[in-house]
């Protein structure tokens, strides 16, 4: 018996790995997060599979559920949205499974921040503009380590992707303005890759008003950085004529 933590992707039912889709099809027990897991993925489950939404369950109830399946010798597809490694609340489940001696595997998925970047057709790392992506969240009811306060991270002026922060947009804007500047581009992507996706673009000085007008208050990724919408950037050296690498030799100088 194995518990499979499956990253189901950001919402588009096609944005799941072949392995993740196979596990959902074959698992006799499916425990899924009910926020963004597409119902069409669950319809692929085999006949007779036990399917449960974990939205109202506590950690203890979730572990008991999986332990019961373990006692019956049944695999469990523990289906999470996005990728389990980012704000997935999976580590605490895995810790409890380890204590109980229940084996588990992790199947990666497409994160909502990469889906959001795709939706706005944006590479998050542009040559000589930004080569670093910071994935973080604003501090709300859930604290963040002091060293990772937005004020500290903003000093790098790297491309920043914020999860779980749309209700704290006022704080995000106020905190980032000193380092990034009022004219720094911002993109807010609500339900990236879903049919009801909403994209709002602006700058730090006007993004709050635009988001307020659109009445967006949940399930959004905030991307901040000079890479957004930038067209005057240097080409990558990877494809340059005079740049050699293991698969191509640069043209000899004439």
**Overall tally of structural domains:** 2
Task: Please outline the major beta sheet.
Answer: 5 strands, parallel
CATH homologous superfamily grouping of the largest domain = Tetrapyrrole methylase, C-terminal domain
Q: Might you state the CATH topology name of the largest domain? A: Methyltransferase, Cobalt-precorrin-4 Transmethylase, Domain 2
Structural account:
The chain is α/β, with parallel strands linked by helices and 254 residues long. The chain folds into 2 domains: 3-107, 3-Layer(aba) Sandwich (Cobalt-precorrin-4 Transmethylase, domain 1), CATH 3.40.1010; 112-224, Tetrapyrrole methylase, C-terminal domain (Methyltransferase, Cobalt-precorrin-4 Transmethylase, Domain 2, 2-Layer Sandwich). Helix content is 27%, strand content 19%. It is built from 8 helices and 10 strands. The protein has helices at 18-26, 39-42, 59-71, 91-100, 112-119, 150-154, 169-180, 207-214, and strands at residues 3-7, 29-32, 50-53, 76-80, 104-107, 133-137, 159-163, 185-190, 198-203, 220-224. The strands form 2 sheets. A 5-stranded parallel β-sheet has the order 3-2-4-1-5, sandwiched between helices. The protein has a 5-stranded mixed β-sheet with strand order 6-7-10-8-9, sandwiched between helices. Strand 2, helix 2 (39-42) and strand 3 (50-53) form a beta-alpha-beta unit. The radius of gyration is 21 Å and the shape is globular.
């Amino acid at each position: 018996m194995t518990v499979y933590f499956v990253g189901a992707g950001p919402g588009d039912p096609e944005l799941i790995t072949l392995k993740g889709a196979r596990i959902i099809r074959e698992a006799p027990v499916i425990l899924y997060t009910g926020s963004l897991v597409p119902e069409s993925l669950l319809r692929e489950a085999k006949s007779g599979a036990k399917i449960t939404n974990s939205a109202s369950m506590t950690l203890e109830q979730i572990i008991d559920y999986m332990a019961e399946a373990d006692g019956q010798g049944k695999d469990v597809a523990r289906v999470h949205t996005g990728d389990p490694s980012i704000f997935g609340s999976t580590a605490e489940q895995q810790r409890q499974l380890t204590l109980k001696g229940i084996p588990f595997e992790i199947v990666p998925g497409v994160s909502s921040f990469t889906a959001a970047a795709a939706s706005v057709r944006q590479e998050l790392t542009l040559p000589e503009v930004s080569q670093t992506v910071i994935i973080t969240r604003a501090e709300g009811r859930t604290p963040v380590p002091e060293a990772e306060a937005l004020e500290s991270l903003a000093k790098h002026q790297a491309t920043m992707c914020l999860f779980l922060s749309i209700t704290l947009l006022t704080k995000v804007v106020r905190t980032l303005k000193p380092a990034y500047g009022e004219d720094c581009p911002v993109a807010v992507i609500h339900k990236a890759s879903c049919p009801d996706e909403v994209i709002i673009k602006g700058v730090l000085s006007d993004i709050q008003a635009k988001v307020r007008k659109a009445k967006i208050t949940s399930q959004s990724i905030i991307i901040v950085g000079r890479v957004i919408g930038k067209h005057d950037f240097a080409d990558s050296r990877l494809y340059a004529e005079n740049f050699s690498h293991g698969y191509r030799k640069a043209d000899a100088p004439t």
